[in-house]
Amino acid sequence: MLDFALENNFNHLMIQVRGRGEAFYNSEFVPRSSVLFNDLFDPLEYVLKKAHQNNIQVHAWVNMYILWSSVEPPEAENHLYYIHPDWIDQKGNNEGKFNQNKNTLETSNDGEGYYLAPNHQAVAPYLLNVLREIVEKYEVDGLHLDYIRYKDYEFGGNEFALNSYRIQSGDDAPIFLSAESTVEEKGKQSASRSLKWNNYRRNSVTELVKKAKEMTMTVRPDCILSAAVKPNLYIARDRFLQEWDVWLASGYLDWVIPMNYTSSFRNFAANIDLIYENFPPKYRERIIMGISTYNQSSSEALNKINYSKLKQFPGVSIFSYNVLEENPDYYAPIRQALVK
Question: Rounded mean pLDDT of 139-153?
């Protein structure tokens, strides 16, 4: 991978160091990934040493809220899946919840898998400690936040987080509206509470991003903080509670990387046009366009790179290396375009 990056003029590498609640580095509290068999080997330390020797910057890619997605449970006994199932998010209708008496999680691993609840008061401090340990122990050039969002719109129903919301707001989430209200009153209450509830959920994610920036500025000021985000601004904000326009405009992030991974050129262009219309030119260099390789030909990927440049987004992020490794010929036409 390092040889490929050097030969093909990549100047930044996004290296995944936390996948599904496990570490690809030496951590004092995050369980070591089960795919690492040599206890003496530190992948992050190795990559940093080799990359810096060749003037390549390394960004530690950290999956944030997503915790586990395999059908089989984790091997590590100190995985959060076991020690803090009460931190895991549930749907707003409370289908599937943590059973305090049995100390188990009663929910299915549907879709992407299990997510930590962004609105649980213990989750943000834990994740900040994960990030802090990395930037304190390793000379990383950047921190890259992935899965920094709710699993989907209907989530946020973690039992303990909801109890905290009731205490803080003096109100119930919309899913607990009183059945005694009239239809008209209930409609007004529902609209008001939904707005309040959605803002609360968005803010829980935004606050973590903000605190991550404050932490990096204290511990490693030159560290670039970036995030992988949903490419459609409105879908990101309204469905996944991910207000990345606010994060970028407020200076909480140095870069955003829209995962513009659709194979459809029309949809790809529509996402870019939406970003173009909402951000003034001064932000263009801080928006690194994510280009996929796993679902399209190299010529299709090249067309998207050229369109990004046409719209004055000069930076691109290629996802992922797997395809380039398996098919060396894939990258040749793309390389010619990027080195021009």
Answer: 97
